[in-house]
Design brief:
The protein has 123 residues and is of the alpha+beta class. The protein has two helices and two strands, in the order H-E-E-H. It folds into two domains: 30 residues; 66 residues, Antifreeze-like/N-acetylneuraminic acid synthase C-terminal domain (Type Iii Antifreeze Protein Isoform Hplc 12).
Length: 123
Amino acid sequence: MTKLSPGTLILAVFAVLFGLVGAYTAKQYLREEPEPEVVEVDTRRTVPLAAADLPAGRTVTLGDVMLVRMTPEQISKRGIAEGFMTNPKQVIGRTLRQAVPKGEAFVVPSLYPRGWARAWPIA
């Protein structure tokens, strides 16, 4: 059997320690979680607005509607009531129960249900 010299033994101990430190460092490097990616969320909503002053009894056409993207803060600042229509398909082809001024949102109470026409005078 061959005897190990003290120099070889010390070199072997340092090699093992160096390997352990390297393995620990690699493990820590691979373990670090990447920075979370910040994703901007678009909170704007499409709001169909009257493109002109629309009188009561008018059937809304595509030309009567303009689409505006607004943030919730802009909607609140303009005083647009909850329950406003968010899709032009909800508005086009419906008859107005009440006049809608230019730039105002279409809300459910200002429209007759789809398929209804003005059958009685507006109060």
